[in-house]
Predict the structure.
Amino acid sequence: MKILNQILLICFILFGISAYAQENIMVKGQVVDNNGTPLLGASIIIKGTTTGTQTDFDGYYQLNSVPNNGTLVVSYIGFITSEIAVNSSDAINITLEEDAESLDEVVVIGYGEMKSKDLTSSITTVKAEELAAVPTGSAMQAMQGKVAGMQVVSSGSPGQGPTIRVRGIGSYNTGASAPLYVVDGMFFDNIDFLNTADITSISVLKDASASAIYGVRAANGVVLIETKSGAFNKKAEITYDGYTGFQVAQNVLKVANAEQFTTLALESGSAPDADYILNAMQRYGRSRVNPNIPNVNTDWYDEIIRPALIQNHSIGVTGGSEDVSYSVGANYFGQQGILDTKNEYERFNLRSKIEFNANDWLKVGANTVISNATRYDGDNSAWRAAYFAVPILPVYDEVLANDPDVFPTNYANAQDLGYRGGQNPFPLLDFNENRTKIRNVLANFYAELDLIPTKLKFKTAYNHNYQTFEYRSVNLPYYIGDSFQRPDASLTKSNTTISNQIWDNTLTYKESFGNHDVTVLAGTSFRDESYQFLTATGLNFPLSGEEAYYLDQAQTIVENSVGDGGAREYGFSYFSRVSYNYDGKYLLYGTFRADGTNKYQEKWGYFPTVGAGWVVSEEPFMQNNGVFDFLKLRGSWGKLGNDNVSGSNGSITSSVVTTALGDTMFSGLNTGSDFTSLKWEVTEETNIGINASFLANNLSLEADYYVRDTKDAVIPVQRPLIPGSTRQNVGEIRNSGFEMSLNWSKKVSDNFSYNIGGNFSTLKNEVLSLDGQQYIDAGSAEFRQRSIVGEPLYAFYGREVVGIYQNEAEILADPVAVANNLVPGDFKYKENGGDPTTIDDDDRVVLGSYLPTYSYGFNFGFNYKNFDFTATASGQGGNKILNRKRLEVIFTSDTNWDRDFAVNRWHGEGTTNSYPSAAAVRKGWNQKLNDYYVEDGDYFRIQNITLGYTINKNGKLKGVPRTRIYLTAEKPLTIFGYNGFNPEVANGIDNQTYPIPAVYTMGVNIKI
């Protein structure tokens, strides 16, 4: 019996060991799609736990400590989630089915995420692969044409980001209409420091319901950026992505050549202009082709423009163990400017993101981005100078080559021909240097606690952004003529330091019971924003090179140039959100945020939002309807605050007034106040939308209509009986419009699939109230913009041209022409009120707005075996551009003209009824803001074309890294009618706009 008991004990121990060994096993395998293509980054989680991993580059995974009777939950964006029973198997290969609806795709929202099908707000997400195709140093530039309702106005200058507007402009301070950027929880005014390759996705929160959780910074929309993360239980993956290419100026503005200029000068009837032509022929000789013009024909734009290089190189490593995930990387971006001077931008970035599972209930993480950039800005006034410079002037003047008084270069001087200005743009390019060093450090630290597993979670996060800007402007002396010189070398330096801190704490509770799903979020946020600056200018430092570019080397410090200042703003906020889902059909969503600030006298603002959705396709009566695979109706309303307007300022003033009454002098005190007591502007928005999919989920539709009113807008208000104005929260502005996105995708065979889509949006911007004032003016008298109730904000305001006087009979028949001594070739203006015998300021009307009334984007792509191809296009219309260069002839009359005018000018009866004569443009009558100078800004652009080929796409060649080689053409073609370099002008006034180049690159992406 004793022996039997011992045998039973041994068997029991062995059975226990065997049972324990079988209880937890290691499982590995590969995850692929229907084509057998490995899925990189697919998620594999042990059901009922938070333990999991992600697939590597070849789709392989390995997961330790898996219960032999457990279940694996496998998910991937765009595919149907699958649950696989382990059944003691240690090798499990998984094939996921495509989910064309992508309704289970998780969308990032403020302080959390939601499934796409549960949204009641207007949110558009752009993934990393869509951004990667665009060779640019600014991630937001890659968004152009991709999001309905978001305007992206490009900038061609290296290191300068685009202007972004979401659903129009809602503030009289147009600089206060930029969206809020949130990068991994940190607030930014722009994200130009980020490397596009480091971004996982960009989500644009367009309506108030989506944005309001971020409070007073979110009134103009929110752009959420997620940077790349690692993955648990994933072997290290090394990725290199780089491209190099060149930029070419496109649509270069044509100006009059020497022959056209000579003709115009002689037609103008100006005796001095005719003499200048003779002076040029005497100094530089006569043309052999046409002896009546000088032997100089300079195309100044051709002289100052160059092809420019662009390159980008990124390397990253991602992976993780069972408890730690990591993603680290480095990037270099370099871009020359097409302006032929010290004009370039380069940026070095380092990033790291680490997440650590301390135990089953605590997760901690850190995310850092370090950016170090240097930007050299060319003197942009060179563009203006090149437009006006006469073509009969050479770049260099050999007559001055041996002149000892001319230094350091014998540049030609138009004053030597009799012109009033030197005109040559090269002194601006060669003797100026503007350098800015930009350093940016983003640090994010967080801890996440599972208080009740899968139900109650607490997260605390600290974000700190530290920026420094070191600006140095060097102006070197030169002498080319008595009035074309710079006698003093000047050096201006300024240092600005910005420190922004945010501490967020959130508590999230999720509960499901029956058909009910509820998620509740509550949180607080503390923010501390401060900056300080120091600036000064010195004169006459040693001309020995960059080692002398310091203020202590200057002989003189300009006293009134010294500035030292700063500011600090801080605030505290409470916020909450509730989302409710009943049976996947009925959706409710609401947020409330209370913001406190030290910026205004009104310390607190309260901003609620609410949204609702109805998934109609889930109703029994919609089953098997034969039309809709998915249909959701949604609507939202909300209020947001805008604290981008400057805070309260001003002071109480007093002065002693002395006057004589009779023979006695009396003194008194005159007091006044220009103190402005302000609060945040308030945006109230209503949004109605629809989401639908058709034709076996191959066709998807998203459409929205919105009305967005800015109330309590800060405007200048005239004070009764007191000169001047004061700022008050009494204006009201409305932006309204319709947005639609339509996308079709189709898998034709295992080797071929394609997609095509587009978006379209409208915008109506309107002034609703000016607190009883008739209008508010902006700009100078010569370039007037006016805000009028019922019209767009800052509309161009001038005269309407109805034609050109053709002959003397027309002059004599028009009292206005007779009274103003007009002649054939002058503008004929429309009489719009007042005295019919005169044309004056009362005849001015609104000539249009610089805001487009509609915009659109298209995309097309296909995959055939190892080849991939994408093409995108974008455009806009309904906006106007003030061609200020043309109108600036009012300041001088001895400069060049553009070729469009030279070819199409009026030069005799019947030649044109739109363009004035060469003599007319010099007269004050024709130098008024009118619709000849305010032109259409419509354009269509092929945005991007990319062709790629992938080696080892399916990962079947062991030891061979997956390598994609690609070619891109960015902005290769733009079609427009505006008489300028490009129709993208941020404020609608083209004076010296930097051209936007076409970019051609070749790149490679390698994953190991």
